[in-house]
């Protein structure tokens, strides 16, 4: 059964990791896709791969922290597919890691722009398009870091991603009457290029895996399935939530 048949979805951070997995999964479930990322080569390859499988997808190259990128992705969805039903705003960055007193202000601001300001910009343009269709599902990728527990040396990441959860709840309350559901997805450690920035050696990866109750990292496909749940009618009465898909790291480390 195709859970997103004929739905139009924007996915950011689609060139790798969770966004790449979500693009492939959403396409298999019938969605027509606008895929956003900074890396054109990887994005074009994904669009071609999806087209070979019979899916409809279009690339939108840009920086999610730029208002023109957010506005352009929505315009492309309207132009190519006639509307917007789903947005999985997944792009993000770890930002500076290390003692907070050593974090440069420009690095802090860049992290907030990529993780939090981009979420605001996405919502600013996506929400009216969804309202025009009578509703939709808006999803943000956040994290357990700064939500269920704190981790040293990750202040910019934790603060910006915690802000995404606050934004999620505010938008869910504001736009529920328009039929728009807004939720945040909080993955645990996931085997992605971003995740490997935290754990770059086999020893570090084993340590991070051991922090989870399941004693392993998630695959991008596993997190994509949680995004599919939030995007689909399976979660039709779910809004304003921070959905943990964290392999139990929160219960083990809290």
From TrEMBL:
Superkingdom as given in the UniProt entry: Bacteria
GO molecular function terms noted in the UniProt entry: oxidoreductase activity
Keyword set, alphabetical order: NAD, Oxidoreductase
Signal peptide from the UniProt entry: none
One Pfam family it belongs to: adh_short_C2
Domain Ketoreductase: 7-190
InterPro entries: KR_dom (IPR057326), NAD(P)-bd_dom_sf (IPR036291), SDR_fam (IPR002347)
Protein family (similarity comment): Belongs to the short-chain dehydrogenases/reductases (SDR) family.
Protein name listed in UniProt: NAD(P)-dependent dehydrogenase, short-chain alcohol dehydrogenase family
């Amino acid at each position: 059964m195709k859970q997103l048949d004929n739905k139009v979805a924007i996915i950011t951070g689609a060139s790798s990791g969770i966004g790449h997995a979500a693009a492939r999964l959403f396409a298999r479930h019938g969605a027509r896709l606008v895929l956003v990322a900074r890396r054109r080569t990887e994005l074009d390859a994904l669009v071609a791969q999806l087209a070979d499988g019979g899916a409809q997808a279009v690339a939108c190259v840009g920086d999610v922290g730029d208002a023109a990128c957010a506005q352009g992705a929505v315009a492309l969805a309207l132009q190519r597919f006639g509307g917007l039903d789903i947005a999985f705003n997944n792009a993000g960055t770890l930002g500076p890691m290390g003692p907070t007193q050593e974090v440069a202000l420009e690095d802090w601001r860049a992290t907030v722009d990529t993780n939090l300001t981009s979420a605001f910009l996405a919502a600013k343009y996506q929400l009216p398009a969804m309202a025009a269709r009578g509703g939709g599902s808006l999803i943000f990728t956040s994290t357990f870091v700064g939500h269920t527990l704190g981790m040293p040396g990750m202040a910019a990441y934790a603060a910006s991603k915690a802000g995404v959860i606050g934004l999620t709840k505010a938008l869910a309350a504001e736009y529920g009457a328009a039929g728009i559901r807004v939720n945040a997805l909080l993955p645990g450690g996931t085997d992605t290029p971003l995740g490997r920035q935290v754990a770059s050696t086999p020893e570090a990866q084993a340590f991070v895996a051991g922090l989870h109750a399941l004693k392993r990292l998630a695959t991008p496909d596993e997190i994509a399935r949680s995004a599919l749940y939030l995007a689909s009618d399976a979660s039709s009465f779910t809004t304003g939530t921070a959905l943990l898909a964290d392999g139990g790291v929160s219960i083990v480390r809290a």
